[in-house]
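Reviewers of the previous submission asked for a worked example of the structure-prediction workflow described in the proposal, so we include one complete record here. The input consisted solely of the amino acid sequence. No template or homolog information was supplied to the procedure at any stage.
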Amino acid sequence: MFRFRILFVVLIITKFVITFGGSWVCFASKARVKALEGASLAHLIDPQTIFMNPAHILLQPKFVTFESGAVGSGAEGGFVTSLEEDTRIGIYLGYQNRSVQFFNTVTLRESLGLSAQRNPVEFFWGQEDHAFALSVSRFEDSDRITGEMTLVGKYGLVRLNYELWAHIFIFNEAKKALNQAQLKNPGAILGGRYRPDEGHWQYFGQLYLSRADHVSQSLKFDAQELGVQVGLEHASSVTPRLDWYYGVRLDYFRRQSSQEAYVIVLDQLPLFLGAEIRVTDVVVFRASVTQNFLYGVTKLGNSPEIATSSNTRASLGIGLKLDEILVDGYLEASTNGQMGSDPFVSLLALTYSM
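From that input alone, the workflow returned the following structure tokens.
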């Protein structure tokens, strides 16, 4: 226990999130999202949710933020400011848009060993209750046989009882020198959330569709992807200092391909429960637990379909706001209940609220 306490303190200090900003306590982004697993966009609303629904830039104060991480695959930062009272603009560097990120599986790019987005830039513009975003990246080496090109257009709408969002992967292409492989994988995401008047229950869902064409010297195939996610969540403030949520979600994902090695079947029915406890004006604790319920099937490539194994996962987080500094982190417990340093992925960030 003593060793765990020392480890937790060291990790909190060395891998933390710092937030500057007067009255707005963001209590971080990536660390908070990980500590509150299963939580819907409506509960989270922070600098990370703008990538799902760009209209979330209208629900937050102006800010500038920096998040550390691995070079090219985690480090990111940007700002949101206003042109007029009801108009916001923003630019963000480094955020990688993964088409299947909602289903906890791998993209075709990753399966084929192709490059993810390199040095992406995302632009935001929002007014009143709707916003647009455009993520763009392009890389090509000198011999023009290795590279990637990505262009993702986004739209978001937020109203009192509901919100909607759409992503279009206009260009989702990559190539590499080995076998002169090339992949084109355009797709689209449609999502929404609805909460009835004066209710604590809310309904949310997303639909993902894509098609892909792959060509190389030794292999040629096409693929189609379909992903559906629907869920029900109850969220409420039990006391002025305690917010909690619980719910259930269905994840359905299929990748059909003429090459069985790239087929994916994924069915999950996770239950989730989480809470944020504001102990004082400077301390917030977070905790969540999630696991599959009754039904779950996974098939990757040539392997047979298998039932989902034991996957109970618990996460703990803490936010400390000391004057203008916020230290934030989280730990994730495995199914054996032990908590180690490997899953501790809270990242260094600095956010200034303007």
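The chain has four helices and 19 strands. We consider this example representative of the routine output the project will generate in years two and three.
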